Known about the structure:
Blueprint: H1 23-34, H2 43-59, H3 66-70
Amino acid sequence: MSAGVDEKMTTFIFVDTQIIKDDMLEDINNILNSGDVPGIYKKEDIEKIDQVGNNECIRKKMQPTKMNKLS
Length: 71
């Protein structure tokens, strides 16, 4: 939310000793490959993210499609 919605520069750093469950690696892999982890956001968070995407598309004079909201 802070990186995308609030536009704050964000760095994610972790080391192998921080891996508690192997599932964490799958989540990190999803973030790196698609920028998303399925089921990570609450409904109200998704609505806020979608609104920011709509506003950015309008600002850039683009159609507010799902793909345009991600770029």
